[in-house]
Amino acid sequence: MTAIRAAHAGDAEELSTLARDAYAHYVERMGKEPAPMREDYRAAIDTGGVWVAEDDRALRGLLVLKFEPDHLLLDNIAVSREVRGTGLGARLLAFTEERARAHGLPEIRLYTNEAMTENLSYYPRHGYVETHRGVQNGYRRVFFTKHL
Fold first, then answer.
1. Which stretches within 24-87 are classed as H helix?
2. pLDDT per residue over 100-142, tens digit each?
3. 133: which of 3, 20, 118, 139 lies 20 to 30 Å off by Cα?
C-alpha cells in the first residue's frame, strides 16, 4: 500500500530522481528540461509544502503545494513510471483537495506545460477547468483551477 506523508530533508535526492524519471519523456517534446527536473527539492522541503507517496520499496509520487491566502497552488505533481496508471495520481489530487479544505481554501490552482498533452485531458477529468494560457519563466503553460 502506498502511503502519503510530509517529505523530510532525507527525501530530497530521491525526489529529484523521481522527478527526473517522471518528466524525462517530455524533454524532447519541449526542447528543454521541464521545470520540475530543475527544482531544488531540499529548499522546497524546507518550506513545508512537499508531500511524498511511498511504498515499502521507494518514493512513488510527489506533491509540491504552496498555500496562498485565497487558494492552494499545486506547483508540482509527479508519479514514477513504475506506478503510472494505478490511480496514484488521482489519490495525490484527492490529497491536495483534503489539504486545501483543511486550510479553509476554496480553490486549487495548477499549471502544466502545453507540450504535456496528456495533462490537458487528465486534469479536466478530475474537475479542473482551464482558465488561460501564457508564457511563464520561459515555459508555455496552461493554467487550471478547481473550486471546492
1. 27-30, 41-46
2. 999 999 999 999 999 999 999 999 999 999 999 999 999 999 9
3. 20
